[in-house]
Each structure stands twice: as structure tokens, then as C-alpha cells.
Specification:
Blueprint: E1 6-10, E2 13-26, E3 41-52, E4 55-62, E5 65-70, E6 74-75, E7 78-82, H1 84-88, E8 91-92, H2 95-102, H3 115-124, H4 126-131
């Protein structure tokens, strides 16, 4: 989700850029259909989204790892997945926030009722989130 930023229109579609919170789970967690929010870690990077058909997509770079992201959090409204070494470098999402998120309503292909809580936490911790993973 963009914490702030700007959007504009081109002849090829919509664009958006700004600080983006990327929420990830480790690859070892991919087989779990419930993807526990307690394992989520996060990063903030400047990302530019461009329109790709009906979707908005962009690339995020954490250390030397680059990955395509889409939707809020990077995984179309869900936490994205990342290699274990990238996930380990992220900032742990606090337990109380993870619990709110797990009980949130809405959020199919976008953030749900947890959106404002996640945004507030990210803005309060933006320096740590920006530093996370810089040495990968």
C-alpha cells in the first residue's frame, strides 16, 4: 500500500509512485493456505506502479533482491512471499496488529478493515522499515 505518493495518467494508463509498504511471508510458508499474519515482516521502498491490463504492478528492490509487486502489500491485497533471507531482514509486524489483520473484514484484492492500522504503524516506524534489508 502506498503510504503517500502521487498518481497521474498517461496515454498508456494510470501511474502511481511513492513509499510503498511491502508485507512478506517466507517461502517456507507458501504451502499454508491461511498464511499466518504473525509471521509477516515488512519493508518500505519507493515503488512506481504502472497499469498492466486491469492491474497495477511495480517492482520493489530490497538489497540485491528485486521482485514484482501488485495491489496492497505486494500480493494483491495479501502478504507477498519472499525468499527466506529477504523475509528475515524485514521488520516484524507487531503481534497486536497481526491479530487485528487476521480478524479484519473485506480486503479481496485490496487491503481490508486493517488498512488504517497498518498505515499508521508503517508511518510511525518508517525509518526502520526503510533501513530493513539494505545490507542484503
Amino acid at each position: 500500500m502506498f503510504l503517500s505518493g502521487r498518481s497521474w495518467q498517461t496515454k498508456n494508463g494510470q501511474r502511481m509512485a511513492g513509499p510503498f509498504i511491502w508485507v512478506v511471508l517466507p517461502e517456507w510458508n507458501l504451502g499454508d493456505p491461511h498464511r499466518p499474519h504473525a509471521d509477516c515482516r515488512a519493508f518500505v521502498r519507493h515503488v512506481k506502479f504502472t497499469q498492466s491490463g486491469h492491474w497495477m504492478t511495480g517492482r520493489i528492490k530490497v538489497g540485491n533482491h528485486t521482485q514484482w509487486v501488485s495491489g496492497d502489500y505486494g500480493g494483491d491485497g495479501l502478504p507477498d512471499h519472499a525468499p527466506d533471507h529477504v523475509w528475515e531482514a524485514g521488520v516484524q509486524i507487531p503481534k497486536d496488529l497481526a491479530e487485528k489483520w487476521a480478524k479484519a473484514t473485506g480486503g479481496w484484492n485490496s487491503a481490508g478493515s486493517e488498512r488504517d492500522h497498518v498505515r499508521k504503524w508503517a508511518q510511525e516506524n518508517i525509518q526502520d522499515l526503510r533501513k530493513a534489508g539494505r545490507k542484503l
